[in-house]
Amino acid sequence: MNTKKLKTIIIIILLLVDIAFGALIISDRTAERRHQSRTLSDLVEVMDKNGIAFIPESIPEVSDLYVLKCTRDISSEAVIASSLIGECSAQDLGGGLYSYENANGSVRFRSNGEFEAALIPSRDAPREDIVSDALSVLDRAGIPVNQRYSSFENGSVSFACTADGTEVFGCSVTLSYSSGRLSSVSGTRPTGSPQYRTADPLISAPTALVRFLSLMSSGGYICTRIENMDICYFMSVSTSGLCTLSPVWQIYTDAGLFYINAVTGALVSV
Amino acid sequence: MKGKSKRSRVELFKTLLIIFLVLLTVFLIGETQIFAQFFGGKTFSSVIASSGSRTPLPLWNEEADPYSSEAAQPLFLAVTGSQGGHYGVKYYEAELDSVYSSAATLIGEVIGSAGEPVQISENEWRASLASQNIFVDYLHPFPLSLISSWFGSEPAVSSSRHSARKLCISSPDGSAVHLSYIDSGSGLFYSAPTSVLFPSLAHVLQLYQPGSDHFAFELGKVYSGCDPYLLILSDTAAPAAVSPLSLSSSDLDRAAAAFSVNPNTASHFTESDGTRVYVESGCSLRISENGILTYRNISGEGRLSAADGAMQDTLADVVKYSKKLVETAQGSSGGASRIYLTAVETSGKTYTLSFGVYISGIPLLRSDGLTSYVTVENGIVASAQILLHDYSLSEQAETVLPEMQTAAMTSGGREPLLCYAETGGSVSARWVFQ
User: Which of A98, B48, B63, B145 is most exposed, with minimal Cβ within 10 Å?
Assistant: First the structure.
């Protein structure tokens, strides 16, 4: 058999194989969608039986998240301080308190990720676009945040902090401007970049919702509507300084926001 | 010539098509469940997507966690805001945990940043308790240097000599934050300035409404018979009924494994009362059927030593290692107890550490007076006794006298303490006076 014919045969075989795999994938995806839709309808039914309307049109899939661990990164604090007030050196006050100070202002860090900077307003021209200036300040400081602000009023703009691209509940940074000039920065951030992860598998959104139902009835909470659900990180810092970022399911209801630990299924009190 | 060139272009196209189809086949295989089975349920595209967006991180090793938590937590806490009125918490674990978690960072900052302590009068101590403050009572005195190490820092040189059970983080003038305490060695009162700013204290204080609890000295003559700095709650929750969990053979095996004795391979003999005895490399380990583990290192070259890198010979390291040893031996059988350090005895490089059992924030006392302890000599565990029992809480509540009445009946400057008393295998809540 010559090479030309052999190539033609190989092309035909490969085409047939690709068509077969394509059909298999389409069948898998269809089954998956059908499964999701059945899960959603079952969930809506369960919720309905418990007097709760389930509004979301789809159930979020488990994101590729893990419980993350990190230790306090003093060098990242020095970067934040120098980006805000210029050249400065750390003063260890004991008890996990670090202070940076110079003629441009002062910055103080706590072991639980809280920090506060009081700045002497510069003589530069006032900023017209506070939001973009705030984002560039945070970028220079190396604080990863959600690019969309969470609140913006009276010259203060707040951004939610992120870890590995996912929002961290309770961690946000507020930048306050006085006459268009940055006057203070404060907030809470993860104490360092994630260094380790655990191998704990996450519970799926339907499991979290069923868990939520059981917690509702055992805790005596009343809610009639689930409006949305999402996943984010929840930060906790141990007394010895180990920072843990745990994935939590955020469940938005008409009775408020509830958090279910996405590993243990426990209700997170905030 | 033209036809040859056309044919060679067709052949080139075929070759390229084959390459494309091979790549497409590989991609399609990656998208099927066949591929996903080998990659934790992820398809090729999701593996590529996740590897691009997230940093690959090493797995966390819980066993090698150098950031273990404190060896003891406060058993009594009181928060007093600007409006006065102490909000006290005792004998209620969930509430203790909640208040402690909101105040722990502050407590660590205050102890760690405290400057040189100066002696103060008892009236000044009382004034601290009356001002905006957080009162912390560990029930047992500990060296301040040890408490500080649980928060990852060291106190000032002078205060590190002191031991304290009762601490008060206060700001009488609403600006500077001070650490005041009663030195348990001398009984004298001390106060030290700290680097903590008032807003950090105010942030914790504003979380709690003014309460109606009191210190005994605030209540007048009726309560003059008890310790003046006893925190008396106006209303205490009834303690839940408790029962000991029975020990299984696997619990005893786990306890042996905590001392590096493999119960499946190590030779042992059983005494007439059912006590298992293991003798290995100059160490003896006895585990009785009623859950008392006794370890003796006869040779002085133990398996549980600084040599494995797990333990240095500072007090903080020895405490951390010993508590982990006790917890590992006791294990977690789904019970409700917690183990806290209760006493530290130091003699040169020999430390004897006692550990107590707490159930829902209430200490457990045994009628035979036995407690768990670990003795460490020159970085080696020389002896240990560990009570292996765990306990479960029931839905039923026990009836005990309210604390107000009990405190009123107390005499001789003693302190009424609610505890679970274990006698002959049964546990009941009662007041003891110490």
Answer: B63
- Would the CB atoms of A239 and B108 count as touching at under 8 Å? yes
Give which of A111, A164, A186 to mutate to test B binding, by max B Cβ within 10 Å.
A111
Q: Give CA–CA dist A247/A68, Å, rounded.
A: 9
pTM for this prediction = 0.82
Interface confidence (ipTM) of the complex: 0.79
For an interface test with A, which of B12, B17, B21, B48 has the most A Cβ atoms less than 10 Å from its Cβ? B21
Q: What is the pLDDT along chain A (270 residues), one digit of tens a residue?
A: 578 888 889 999 999 999 998 998 888 888 888 887 887 788 888 888 888 888 877 777 776 788 999 989 999 999 999 999 999 999 999 989 999 999 999 999 999 999 999 999 877 788 889 999 999 999 999 999 999 988 888 889 999 999 988 999 989 999 999 988 999 999 999 998 888 888 888 888 888 888 888 888 887 788 888 888 899 999 998 887 789 999 999 999 988 889 999 999 888 876
- Give the separation between CA B290 and CA B15, rounded to whole angstroms: 79
3-state SS, residue B155: coil
Q: How far is CA B123 from CA B34, B79, B87, B95, B194, in A?
A: 77, 19, 21, 30, 21
Instruction: Give the chain A residue nearest B54 (alpha carbons).
Output: A164
Nearest CA in chain A to B19: A11
What is the chain B residue with the closest CA to A239? Answer: B151
Which helix (H) or strand (E) segment holds residue B231: the answer is strand B231-232
